[in-house]
Amino acid sequence: MANQDLLSDQGLRLDGRRAHELRRIRCKLGVFSQPDGSAYLEQGNTKVLAAVYGPHQAPGKKSNHSEVIVNCQYSMAVFSTGERKNRPRGDRKSQEMTIHLQQTLRAAIKTELYPRSQIDVFIEVLQADGGNYCASVNAATLALIDAGICLKEYVCACTASLANGNVPLMDVSHLEEVSGGATLSVASLPSSNKIAFMEMSQRFHLDHLPKVLDHALQGCQQIMSILDKAVREHLALVGSASDWGNIAK
Amino acid sequence: MLTERVFMRKTKRGNILKIVREHYLRDDIICGSAICKHCPVSMQNDDDIVLVANPSAESSLFKFPIYLVPDTNVILDQIDIFEEDAICNMIILSTVQEEVKHRSSAVYKKFRDIVGRSPRHCYVFVNEHHKDTYVERKPGETANDRNDRAIRTATKWYDEHLQQSQLNIPKAKRIRVVLLTNDAKNREIAQNEGILAISVDEYVKSLTEHPLLQDKLKHKTYEVESSKNALFPPHLSPAEIHEGIKSGALLQGSFMASRENYLEGSVNVEGIEKFVLIQGRESLNRAVDGDVVAIRLLPEDQWSAPSEIILQDEENDPGDVLEEETEILAVKAEVEKTPTGVIVGIIRRKWRQYCGILQINQVSGSTRHIFVPAERKIPKVRIETRQAEHLKMQRIVVAIDNWPRHSRYPNGHFVRALGPLGDKDTENEVLLLEHDVPHSKWSEEVLSCLPKLPWIITNEDYERRKDLRDIFICSVDPPGCTDIDDALHCRELPNGRLEVGVHIADVSHFIRPGTALDKEASLRATTVYLVDKRIDMVPELLSSNLCSLLGGVERFAFSCVWEMDHNANILETRYHKSVIKSKSAMTYEQAQLIIDDPTQNHEIAKSLRHLNRLAKILKKKRIENGALILASPEIRFQVDSETHDPIEVEAKKMRETNSMVEEFMLLANVSVAEHIEREFPECAMLRRHPNPPQTNFEPLIKAGENQGFEIKTDCGKNLALSLDAAIKEDNPYFNTMLRILATRCMMQAVYFISGTVQNEEYFHYGLAAPIYTHFTSPIRRYADIIVHRLLAASIGADSTYAELLDKHRNSELCNNLNYRNRMAQYAGRASVALNTHLFFRGKTQEEEGYVLFVRKNALQILVPKFGLEGTIYLNIPKDNSRHKPGAPVFVFNKDEHTQQCGNIIFHSFDPVVVRLSLDSTNVQREKLVFELVKPYIEGFSVEPMELSVDDNDDQKASDKVSESTPKRPIGNADENKPKKKKNKKTKK
């Protein structure tokens, strides 16, 4: 199996990272002006756009008088993968992803603050190279912050997998996802050390779970600090006229 | 921490797909040299600094110390050179490593092993991810050119990098970096760029302290082969082959040379039921046994049948000519023809290193010699060596380099010498090497996994295990057995039932998963039994002491206990880990005596009698189900305790007790197989024995027909019945011989993982069992250890671990186990053959034998006493020069498969008397000679012993040259026959 080659004897992965290193993350807040909040995030070659509308009044039927309704829509651009593929909105895979995202975001949003309202989160994957879910969560967090919606804390997601049967890998790329074994995706609230969501692509032995989970959580932790930096920079930039830069520091 | 520069790589595959991948370049990759002062210190780890500060300057070409940077082709071509410790302080670039891996996984494996050895000081430098040495492919540049450039860039960087750390050293003494490449163009470019570059030949020749290294240089000619004087048709190019296979014009398969006729072979093509026959030197077209080849099928009217003659390449190097082959190609129109083809190209060479001997060139002083491999399927090899005088009495190892069109034999080079000819240890070494049996000493790491002595059983152990120390358990084994892995008991229960227990050594208690010991054992896979030597799978402390269920001591066991009624119906089955104390370790003979002696009425005697009675019932049931009883001639040597030379040969005796132990082992295996398959339907390790295809039975059916018996082979049961019916009053050995033939029709039984095969295919043909596994010999088989672990996990006695439940990993493990098992079997047979040789040294004996096959030019004779098979050649060699007038002429009858000479007719299965002696005229190649004694044919048979004739004269005088390297019959269904081995019991 190609499994054996994910990590070389020198401890480098196929793309030159070490086992515990993330891909490069670049992000930008407030990329659109129409939505209330938006963000663009690159995690290696995985590129995601997120837009947030709301909170606005929920339509009568769905309305919940105790908390906000989080409405997500996840979709992948036809050009996002190597082979061009028409992906109708609402195919099974996106539907599942949508539900997962909804669940994760609800855990982070202070839902009780917005009764009878609704928040729409639209996510579009522009380029897919592994860890789509994670990049989507991270981008959504930034977009929610940009929209000024109250969050309990950052919600970050990261994947982890196993190389050569026993070495945990952090933040796996598409290549590693395909040739490797099971991939664990975790969304966590890193400051309070809570797990909001966890998913595995295949079975693996229980013995491996602690170390793989540990790696994924570490990844979330690192992603949080990157996002936090980006948010602060964005604030400094947006509010430079009124000297927000100093406040944000 | 890392320089994040993203580079894109575009790859195309299939219907042109653009793949974009990230490529991170790093600044934390160190150079690995002890003199370096510039690499980031924080990243340095003492283990990573492998290049020494003062590499010795052995090369006469360089007056300063050097580090070597080999390129890809150098490693691929000259891997044998790198095996030598003289070559050290190398920098291996990751570009090179990747390319080697891509081009040849065999070389890569070897090379990785070499790089890992610490005294070699080889450092792998990941130049592809280093920020200063990464090279992007230029537009229009081929991948090869880019890699060459990457190698040069890295070499240059290294050189400059090291210079910076050596500023205070005089220039002439500074360490330099030298590129090792055989590509002249690359060398030239490198030199223009200011890089030191040299070819391997030059470098090796400049190593004045290691002159013999030159022999190992592979001679690679890059000349274009001229079609002039070509003996062989050219091979098609890979593209043509690919095209041909795609369009169906060509077929692909693995080539198997014939053992009996060096100008014949067959190709196993997927999708064609029969083997495709390849005949004649030109059709074989330089394929060597094992190669994956492309063939073109001949039109049906040119199909042929395997020739009935036995042919060996006997000549001394006759030069590059092809002899007449009419004899072989003479097609027998009447005989059933098989698909025939010609080899048009080689897809993959499966050349390995071969053991054999040197045949010295008659021209003295010449450095070119012929190497004769021990394996008869392999052609002779031309090699060049300066140490011929020294090597001619040695067993040597040689690798094949290439086989040009104009050469009769392939060219190769010397790899290493094993030891003097005829020396017992050397011969054993050859045997082990040829069969790829790992037999190195146990490493420190492995030994450290062993329990500390004195080993004591703690109270904790007693608590966790069932205490069976009071039960009358005993073991029954062959005499001299030290690795006892099973013991039995049987007692009457108060409720009238019988309790039968099979207790197996609890090896998995000592061999924990993931340890070095476990890894080594899984690699070795099985204990190999040679006549005078045992190559253990686990260290002796375990195999002969702590695991072995010796009499009178407390040992851990894994028990399988049944409650049965008196008709051997299983009513209840229990498995548990236990502590037992075997009351007595008996031999088969002792056990038999106790059973037969009515005066003995102690617990053990009662237990044995119950077991014996139940075993008979079990056997009867099994045979009614259609289990086969097969035969293969089994012998054992009595070996001199001092010299380890064989002194007497005896056929193995079968006693009731053998079969008693065997029955219960089978029963335990089946019970365990059912249990683990139920518990782990996806990943249980089982053993199956596939139904042989009907074509396999053809020789058997034909042989039966010739004797007037119908052998039904449509199912196992009918085969068993028809074999039972085929009895000849006047030839008591006839039935056994038929069974020997039947054994050869069988497929090999294999291990597999339950989730990988359809349920119906779990069937074990030989045993007629729907499911089967190996549980009863964990000391000598690794499969049993896995089964023990699975069973232990299923009863909660042990926990599972990731690898145990990994289907793919286990499948790979099965492949290794199957391979090693097969090799171990072959090695065992080869060892018996070797000892037969030794036994006949200086001896001549007359023995009764039987005609096994009648061939066109020979009789194949089986001598049951030695389990030996040999050939008596009948008709005259092709050139009639040696033909003595008046010699008898044999007439071959194709329809009835008989040979007639005067009024004497030889049929298959006819009894004969043959004389066996060892032809030692050629010290290098001793041969066992078979000569006919009875029936007596004037001018052909030898006189009975009293009138002893000088063997050698005899040979020249008449044409009855008959020789054979004795061959052990190839039995396949190993479950059914007792394993032949010294110090070992008969059971599965």
Automatic annotation (TrEMBL), chain A:
GO terms for cellular component: cytoplasmic exosome (RNase complex); nuclear exosome (RNase complex); nucleolus. This is Exosome complex component RRP41. Residues 21-149, 154-218 form the Exoribonuclease phosphorolytic domain. Belongs to the RNase PH family. GO terms for biological process: nuclear mRNA surveillance; poly(A)-dependent snoRNA 3'-end processing; rRNA catabolic process; U4 snRNA 3'-end processing. Coiled coil: none annotated. It comes from Hermetia illucens. It holds the Pfam family RNase_PH_C. GO terms for molecular function: RNA binding. InterPro entries: ExoRNase_PH_dom1 (IPR001247), ExoRNase_PH_dom2 (IPR015847), ExoRNase_PH_dom2_sf (IPR036345), PNPase/RNase_PH_dom_sf (IPR027408), Ribosomal_Su5_D2-typ_SF (IPR020568), RNase_PH (IPR050080).
TrEMBL record, chain B:
Residues 465-797 form the RNB domain. It comes from Hermetia illucens. GO terms for cellular component: cytoplasmic exosome (RNase complex); nuclear exosome (RNase complex); nucleolus. Residues 66-188 form the PIN domain. Pfam families: OB_Dis3 (PF17849), PIN_4 (PF13638), RNB (PF00773), Rrp44_CSD1 (PF17216), Rrp44_S1 (PF17215). Residues 947-988 are annotated as: Disordered. One of its GO terms (molecular function) is RNA binding. Gene3D superfamilies: 2.40.50.690, 2.40.50.700, 5'-nuclease, Nucleic acid-binding proteins. Belongs to the RNR ribonuclease family. This is Protein DIS3 homolog. InterPro entries: Dis3_CSD2, NA-bd_OB-fold, PIN-like_dom_sf, PIN_dom, RNase_II/R, RNase_II/R_CS, RNR_Ribonuclease, Rrp44_CSD1.
